[in-house]
Amino acid sequence: MVQAIRSARGYLSKTAQLTQWLRRSPDSDSAAPLTAFMAPALDAALAPQREQQQTYPPEPHPIQRYRAIWLSDIHLGTPGCQANYLLDFLKHNESDQLYLVGDIIDGWQLRRGWYWPQSHNDVVQKLLRKARKGTEVIYVPGNHDEAARQFDGMAFGDITVREEAVHVTASGRRLWVVHGDLFDGVVQHARWLAYLGDSLYTVILALNRHFNRLRARLGFPYWSLSQFLKHQVKNAVNYIGAFESAMVDEARRRGCDGVVCGHIHKAEIREVNGQLYCNDGDWVESLSALVETMEGELKIVYWTTLLDAPAPATRRRRRAAVAG
Question: Which of 70, 120, 132, 281 could form a disulfide with 290 if both were Cys (CB 3.0 to 4.6 A apart)?
Answer without folding.
Answer: 70
